[in-house]
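Let's study a protein:

===
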Amino acid sequence: MKFNISEKIFSFFCDKNRKWGSVEKENLGAEKLLKIQKIEWDVFWDKLDESNVNFKDKIIVDYGCGYGFDSLFMLQEGAKHIYCLEIEQERLDISRKLHLSHGYNNATYIDNSNISELPNKIGIGKVDIIICRDVMEHIPSPYEALNSMYEILKHGSNAYIGFSPLYKSPYGSHFSGYCKIPWIHLIFSERTVLNVFKELYKISDTINSYQKIPGSGLNKLSYFKYLELLKKFNWYIEKNYINRFSNSGYLKDGINILVSILPFKSIKELFIVSVYTKMIKNNKILFSSLQ
């Protein structure tokens, strides 16, 4: 492929020695990987300021279960039943094997490719807790996902959503492993980025959008669009935190002060990296914390 000028400039900043899809965790042993996943799981709850969530005897939905680690931790804490949702059968198969290898068979594995079918597969108002960790930015239709969550959740029960990085933040493209320049995905067009990736990393020629990238597609969800979607449902928003970083209080405070004084939403979003929300399905509506 012959690069045009913008593609040549973008390719200059890319790591040409990187293989597509290669991650550091691939070479870790099962035990060490499990420990790392447990740390990430605990960090998720720290960022929500929720240290004592009770999973015992609860019916839970792991919305975007990945390889089943989060579900395993909840099963270990006494969950009655977990519905593991994914759009890739390979991930569901790996999740099932992980749970069985630890002695758990009280989980159901659901292909959630057609989100509109989910309430029929699980049941209306049946679920006690929904967990959606680092998934919302990948779901093709966030509105449909939130709608399905609302339908399957019991009144008075909780949904926890947390994800990072948001699309308009410095590394919101999720391509920092290939190109470490901040906001590179906003500087160069999607077509330019994908053309370069096809040449350097041999991704499929059929991929014509970030959403089509297998395993890590992006819906380009921005922070204020996320808030707009939440307001379409009768959630009681108990918590909604932005820019929750591990062990970096000064960084968080500094960025949040900057966000508070910036004049326009479009500029604010450039510095909103993460969002962590606790919602309750209720007849009350509270959006006072949503800014």
